[in-house]
């Protein structure tokens, strides 16, 4: 085993790197710096999709305070004054409405009554949950139905109590989702990946669990989240539905203790599937101690593939269980952060938390 590298002390990246990130709208740099545009007097996140100015008309700041003190005002499009990863208020409104009555069927007019345009909700949920809002609600009802059936509730009570107008409509939706009739669901283990949102100091995370263990833990604004969800569903061959699960509750409690600095080792069981090489890398990630880091080269040596730093980096990026499988503990050989799908600012924050402990 190679000696872990020292933890990174953050400074602003080189100007050329920040220019590249800003001009490419690279969201992984959100929280690392903000960009002031001299010709407009506004400052933006690196990920801002507004028309980009000439490089000579921009300057960079370490944070919102520095940009404000320099006389810039926040961009209305990308809202850089709001912490990265913050859930919009309209999403909280929708989720609260769902959880207040999970079996209620919410129609477009119900969304408008809550002050939310249906098209806006559809776009956000597709991007951050991998499904439309109405699909999210339907899945929430189906996961509740599955739980009730497994608890011994009658088919009649479940079908009509979870928002379906008829038994036939419920059977069709249930069979299409789970691949089995409702009456047979009591004896089918791991019928679905149950998903939920978990709030953290770094923004909300999408978590998923089967009866075997936790299989997903990603920041909701992670790059390529939708692709990761599709791959996970293909590997497990199970539908993904919002709901409750004991492994999700355990994850929620352990994450809270981790962020409070009171937990250094997670005990929630894990389910991770990938290529044999990816799984070797993920197992070695779990062996990097809390408060330590390892280089990509060192990790390649640990998986008996010296010189395969790029392959290790790709496997690191394909990790679907963030924090618990600690891919944030892998840095460049020179001690710089390297990449991180959840954003470099989160990687710096997590390493800082563990270093302080």
List the helices and strands and how they pair.
Elements: H1 15-23, E1 34-37, E2 42-44, E3 58-61, H2 64-69, E4 73-74, H3 89-100, H4 108-113, H5 118-129, H6 133-150, H7 155-161, H8 167-178, E5 193-198, E6 205-210, E7 213-219, H9 225-236, E8 240-242, H10 246-259, H11 276-286, E9 294-295, H12 296-302, H13 309-317, E10 330-331, H14 344-356
Parallel strand pairs: 2-4, 5-8, 9-10
Antiparallel strand pairs: 1-2, 1-3, 5-6, 6-7
Helix pairs in contact: 12-13
Features:
Arc Repressor Mutant, subunit A, 10 strands, alpha/beta, four-stranded mixed sheet, DNA Methylphosphotriester Repair Domain, 357 residues
Q: Main sheet?
A: 4 strands, mixed
Amount of helix: 40-55%
Report the strand count: 10
- How much β-strand is present in the residues? 5-15%
Give the name of the CATH superfamily of the largest domain: Homeodomain-like
Computed Rg: 22 Å
Secondary-structure element sequence? HEEEHEHHHHHHEEEHEHHEHHEH
What global shape is seen? globular
Distance between the termini: 23 Å
Mean of pLDDT: 85
Please state the structural category: alpha/beta
